[in-house]
Amino acid sequence: MPADATIDASTDAGTDATPSFADLQLPAPLAAAVADLGFTIPSPIQLAAIPALLGGRDITGVAQTGTGKTAAFGLPLLAAVDPAADVSRGHVQALVLTPTRELALQVADAIESFATHLPGLRVHAVYGGAPYVTQQRALRDGVHVVVGTPGRVMDHLDRGALSLDGVRFLVLDEADEMLRMGFAEDVETIFGQAPAKRQVALFSATMPPAIRAVADHHLTNPVEIAVARQSSTVAGVEQSYAVVPFRHKAGSLVRVLATSDADATIVFTRTRSAAEEVGSALVERGISAATISGDVAQKERERIVERLRSGALDVLVATDVAARGLDVDRIGLVVNFDIPREPEAYVHRIGRTGRAGRTGRALSFITPHERGKLKQIERTIRTQLTEIEIPSPKDVSEHKARRMLDAVAARLDTGRLELYTQMLTERTGPDGAPLIDVAAALLALAVGDDGPQLRAEQEEFDAQRAEVRGGRTRETHRAERSDRDGDRTHRHPRADRQDRYDRGDRGDRGDRRGQGIRRPADGTRYRIAVGHANGAQPRGIVGALTNEGGLSGSDIGKIDIFGNFSLVDITTTLDSAAMDRIGRAHVAGKALRISVDRGAPERRTPRTERHATYTR
User: Fold this and answer.
1) What is the pLDDT of residues 136-148, one digit of tens each?
2) Among residues 391, 411, 433, which one ends one of the domains?
3) Is residue 485 in a domain?
4) Residue 482 included in any domain
5) Residues 597 and 527 sit within 8 Å (Cβ to Cβ)
6) What is the number of H-type helices and E-type strands within the chain?
């Protein structure tokens, strides 16, 4: 690698003056899209990567999500694509590989937002857990850019629905995560089916030897770019989180908004479809809300933002892409309805509040199995978030009533209450109800408390709180087990798991705690009902757990595949809803039917010669 091909994007701006996107010499349609999105100053990774890619160079970028890398490769990718070219029958021009469907949707949304001034250009995301037919139809009709997970891309290649013969631009996003999840063989196959003459951008949070080997093999004299992590949060922002099971998120958000004194609120979701669902749910509850995402036209976006600035709109639901460049001083609360995948994205989100010297508040909803992501955010921002409880229906009624009572003094001073005094006197005479009871009933009606409905909402809230506390109890028990096993904590987790695997369930039964359940040192071992006899492979199991089960790659540990079942170490706590989702997922055409592994003395050694073991 030539010395001049390495760029430290953390410090090298290339000029003493503050750079702008105008300095990057983007094609006119892309420059217009950048201006529409409110982009002015490129991030370090954009400043280094965009000129290199526009110049036709391959690049390797060491950068995390939230540093602006999607625009860093997305804008040059669109510059390399010809919207007028024939892309029917699956002959795409650009391919972006991502490790998860969540990231695939985010990247596809972002690229679509950059392509608003490229008429006819089509972008489509393909990933596991979604129907094949819809994706195949889109590919058949013609797509210029495909963003997808390696497993589903391979499926479409195998079925003939996707062709890489015309690929000009190929991106590996989060390459280290992709390889760690067991997609190395798929990545090699995909590269092998792409033309030898193509441009490649590889992005990875780290550059271990395995990623270096991919770069050396598939990239031509790449420019190496490195960017430092963003690790500071906005001063003046009060940061908190609440544990909220997924199915209770919408109701919890409504109660948070009902008890907030913020002038305006932004609610962040991971995907465009989630933003639309949340926005619709809020409007149905009578909340002044609107939604912006990557497919909202620029004029409509400007109209919505202006309503937010003027006070005509109280709540904005947005994706990360749509909120870029948004600067509204009156935003006092940011709610992360979906916790972001990366700490850097969290920093970007909460920066929407606490502006112009004001204080702000940021609240993140954490599902019971996402505590690991929370800890990662806290480590990165060097700040511990405060846990709070979601307001109950009773809290909402009390908040509304207090605000109404606070306005009583001013209304008394205004006068002209004779009509209402007379009506109350008629109702509270000798044969009527006591005045205090009538006043209480009027206050209840004014805040929307009709009695029976509130009791039902309170019962639902109590069930939600019990579910969350039950999850905490399981985590406490797991921590206590870890303390009891402290004599082994100095060992590498992988070695500890391997020892227990070698023993099976036959040796050293004194170490088998928890009613005979075999547990890895950093989680729980689960049994799934697919094995070698069903054609199960590690990448298929990982794909099912991350796509259908909602887990992240970091939640999955060692995988042992036996004849007709497999064992998987999962480091996060699975609630009943997660177990149900995973149990219905399919690998090799068979349902996983997941359950906690309780061991079997007759268990045979897994067939490791067929790559049956997947280790973090």
Assistant:
1) 999 999 999 999 9
2) 391
3) no
4) no
5) yes
6) 22, 21
pLDDT digits (tens, 9 = 90+) for 209-222: 888 899 999 999 99
Residue 60's H or E segment, with its range, is strand 59-62
Closest to 43 in 3D by CA, of 82, 62, 71: 71
User: In degrees to the nearest 10, what's the CA dihedral of 115, 187, 376, 465?
Assistant: 80
Same domain? For 213 and 335 the reply is: no
Q: For residues 227 and 65, what is the distance between their CA atoms, to the nearest angstrom?
A: 11
Of the residues 345, 373, 391, the one at which a domain ends: 391
pTM for this model (two decimals): 0.51
For residues 212 and 249, state if they share a domain.
no
Estimate to the nearest angstrom the gap between the alpha carbon of 414 and the chain centroid.
51
Q: How confident is the model at residue 505 (pLDDT cuts 50, 70, 90)?
A: very low
CA dihedral (298, 300, 306, 307) in degrees, to 10, reads -160
Angle (CA) 80-83-89 rounded to 5° is 105
Here the tokens at position 90 are 């699956």
Kindly state whether residues 387 and 404 are assigned to the same domain.
no
Total domains, the chain:
4
Task: Give the tokens for residue 512.
Answer: 């088998």
What mean pLDDT comes out for the span 172-180? 87
Give the CATH number, domain containing residue 76. 3.40.50.300
- Domain of 428 in residue numbering reads as 395-449
Same domain, 218 and 107: yes
pLDDT tens per residue, range 248-270: 899 999 999 999 989 999 999 98
In a domain, 471, yes or no: no
For residue 61, what are the β-bridge partners? 203, 225
The helix-helix angle for 393-406 and 452-484 (nearest 10°) equals: 120
Q: Is residue 479 in some structural domain?
A: no
- Per-residue pLDDT of 587-610, as tens digits, reads 777 788 898 887 643 444 454 433
